[in-house]
Design goal:
Blueprint lengths: L18 H29 L9 H8 L10
Length: 74
């Protein structure tokens, strides 16, 4: 039977701290930046130019007021 050792095992170097991990971090950050840029471009080209509803008090009053009735005689 082998003796049980209480000595700490040497820590393995983290994969993320190596060359592959740094490359992964750069690629991941680049993907995030590109996606944010594309979403911003999409907002500027598609969503921002949409017409906005008129929310002035006069427009709201006209929208909710009853339409003028025209009486037609037979």
């Amino acid at each position: 039977m082998a003796p049980i050792s209480n000595a700490p095992t040497p820590k393995a170097r983290s994969w993320f701290r190596g060359r592959g991990g740094r490359r992964f971090a750069w690629e991941f950050a680049l993907i995030i930046v590109i996606k944010l840029a594309l979403l911003t471009l999409l907002w500027v080209l598609v969503i921002r130019p949409l017409p906005r509803a008129d929310t002035s008090p006069a427009a709201i009053e006209q929208h909710f007021s009853a339409p003028a009735t025209t009486e037609s005689s037979p």
